[in-house]
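Render this sequence as a predicted structure.
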Amino acid sequence: MSRSSFAGIEIGKSALVVSQIGLDVTGHNIANVDTAGYSRQRIESTAYDPFWTLGRAMPVEAAKVGGGVAIKVLDQIRSAYLDSRYRTENTINAYWQKRVQGLTYVQSYFDYTIGPTSINDAIASFFGAIETLSKDTVESAQRTLLKDEGLYLAQQFNTIYAGLIDLQNTYNEVVKVTVEKINNIADQIVELNKSIYGFEVTGLIANDLRDKRNLLVDQLSALIPVEYYEEPYPVGTDNSKFVVKIGDEILVEHDKSYKLSTEERPNTIEGEDPVLIPVWADPRPIPDVGAPYTFYLGYSKSNTVKLTSSFPVTGDSTGEQAVKDHIIKINELVKEFNTLEVYYSGNPSNPFEGPGGGDTPAVIRAREILTELQGYFADDVVGVDCDLGGNHAYITVAGATETLIFARSALCIESGRATAKIGYITPTVGEYLDPLKVTGGELLAYMEIRDSDDPKVQGIPYYVEMLNNLARAIVQEINKQHREGWTDPLNAESETGINFFDESLAMWAWRDNHGNVYHLNEFNDWENVADASDIVDPTVVYTFTSFADDSTHGADFWTDNIGNVYLLNLDGEWENISDPTDIVDPTITYESFYDMSGVTAKNVRLSDEVIESAFNIACSSVKVVRDGLSNELQSGNNENMLVMYDLFLKKDIYVDAGAKSIDIGSLDGYATRVRFEVGTTLNNARNTSENSDTLLNSVTNQRLSIMGVSLDEEMTNLIKYQYAFQGASRVITAMDEALDVLINRTGRVGL
């Protein structure tokens, strides 16, 4: 049995190389024991096959020794499952941490523990001053005290409101910064994708670059929920591209990132500056799909039809141009069709005819265009109809929610013939990332704290509205009673009907049984505050009369209190028999109310009369009369102050603000409720955050147990590879000595 004389040297050499690389990898692991995101590496080795083979089957005694050892792969130790779990928990945890942080800031404006500055203390001090004044309504000191406490109460409302708005503005900037962070991370991932692809296309594995990319995905998962995956690129090769998605849209696609920006949207808090919403600054990529591909017809996302593509729709520029060419061709056919003088025959199988019936060159061409257009659209959606006058034929396309009609060289919606456009589905600038799709992360927490008025997800607008309601209730109740009293101005006649707080922004309004609110506009018309085109006369009252009771009009009818009669028309609407354009809904009823929605914590202040003089505070329930010479009090009392003080204990207070009637209960009780709402919500958020911390720590520990560097394990590997290196060296030395005997001493016996 023969073998190469130098085979042993090669075996020792391979062992020496593997041991040396093992020492290098171990040293690299030890050096990065504290590097964030680093996952430990190890070499996987495999035995070399024998250098030669005599046959497929060989007896054991003739078996050949292997050729040594080789490195199979430099492996990166991490779990894709635990990576995914970590990022999911990280998203949830980051959301709750930032929510707790935001609610803590909000609570600071209502916290009674920071001293006598809470709204409860201000209300108590105000009513304490009312009680003091009720005991002596003559002296100016007591009147000035109530005036000062009223000023302080108003200032407390103003200060808390301003603080919450300032906090909202801060979160507005934080949203903008977070969007910029997402863009920055996306750009870094793109650069790493390029480097990884360039490195691995040679057959090597870029472990350290992949660690950096994974760390960026970890950081991104704290900001917003992420999806990510690798897919073959180009298709059919072993190379891959890395894709990251947020909000069901692609953020990173291998070597390209799609930028986010921010746009202004109306503030949930009426009258305050607009807020910034994340939007896509770049057009979205067209995904690689098979035909048919769904395109928009019209402006509405909900109204779509499918185009059948005769070309492959791909995500690159070639695919986008093909889509555009496809649409251009459709519009060219439509434009040509609309130049033809053809009429609708009423026969679906042969819908076109000439002016006098029969075929004409225009009719023949119309059929050709119809057939060609039908080939462009998936499903059986293309048809033929006639215009509103029943003459010229038009080609129609049945959309998902409404029929679109080709007319006059442009797509237009049948109802009103409003111009519409055709284009492929793609979010564009101004179409913001739907927060309902973002289920966690810092971005959602910031936006909810800033924007939410939902009782289930309380944010700054929710607490501002509670604060506004409390201010409205105090202004409403104090003013209502204060107007009943009489002032005691020095050297002037006593007056009644004076407000204590300014109420100039409150007004009489109407509310219908559908929740619409109507204010008087500059033309003295009652205008819907949500729809300026909705003008009503809420004083009109409708009465229903059945046909069984009165057959005068041949059917059921309604009458109003100004003599009009309304019958049901063919469209199911109640139409004035004297004026067909007068369409009404007689089931709508109206009620008048005093709308306090204009009064807010921002603008609450004392009335001009009280600011001018504390003697304009109406303490008496009867007109105050003083002697003209001595100024001695001849009539007057303190009863109005006593009734005002009782308001502190009143428990059935309601406030009308817009479409809502708010149950306040008691003033102090509602102020306490505001504080408790914040505290309870914060406490619940803290508990959830702590639970999330536990889950995240558990996943983190599991993850680190696999990917983290253990110094004990690395020390063991260091000793192992050190001794393996020494052993390989001894193998080479032994083989060298054997070869020395073979080469230099064989055949020299006896010399």
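Summary. Residues 507-595 form one domain. Residues 399 and 602 are 49 Å apart (CA to CA).
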